[in-house]
Design goal:
By secondary structure, this protein is an alpha+beta fold. It is built from 4 helices and 6 strands; from the N terminus they run E-E-E-E-E-H-H-E-H-H. The protein has a 6-stranded mixed beta sheet. Helix 2 packs parallel to helix 3. The longest helix has 19 residues.
């Protein structure tokens, strides 16, 4: 079965030292991430000019960020620079993961791997957002305590 790509692949861009790099923009809830991955790296991940180990103290968030590289068997091949804003820590980590996945799929992996990434849900933005507060209620769904008098 032939994989059908919705986006055209852009040619790989190179910096002044000859390393290939790619951009990706990821989103999750209200978190937005701009990600640059550079080829021929050492696996260093920097988020908002801070090591991602310091920026994300929870192990689950760090695993989430590195998952696209594990999925395509390219661990420690790329350096990642990410700028993230909005949302909480988990949303920010997922936004970075989405940006990394998009950058990898545009430049560094073949069509078969892109289709596997799509089926695994790495290339699809999570459409869930915060539900609005309703009038006469405490929150989106929570009600005020019922009083008999």
């Amino acid at each position: 079965m032939q994989a059908i790509s919705k986006r055209e692949k852009q040619p790989i861009q190179y910096d002044e030292s000859g390393r290939g790099f790619a951009f990706g923009k990821g989103m999750k809830k209200s978190a937005r991430a701009s990600v640059i991955i550079r080829d021929q790296g050492s696996g260093k991940v920097v988020v908002n000019n801070t090591s991602f180990v310091k920026f994300f103290p929870e192990l689950q968030n760090r695993v989430q960020i590195l998952f696209p590289f594990n999925f395509v068997n390219m661990v420690n091949r790329f350096d990642v620079e990410a700028t993230v804003e909005g949302g909480g820590h988990t949303g920010q980590a997922t936004a970075i993961r989405h940006g990394i996945s998009l950058a990898l799929s545009n430049h560094f992996v073949d069509e078969h791997t892109v289709e596997q990434m799509r089926q695994a849900g790495l290339l699809t933005r999570d459409p869930r957002i915060r539900e609005r507060k309703k009038p006469g209620r405490k929150g989106a769904r929570a009600k005020f305590p019922w009083k008999a008098r």
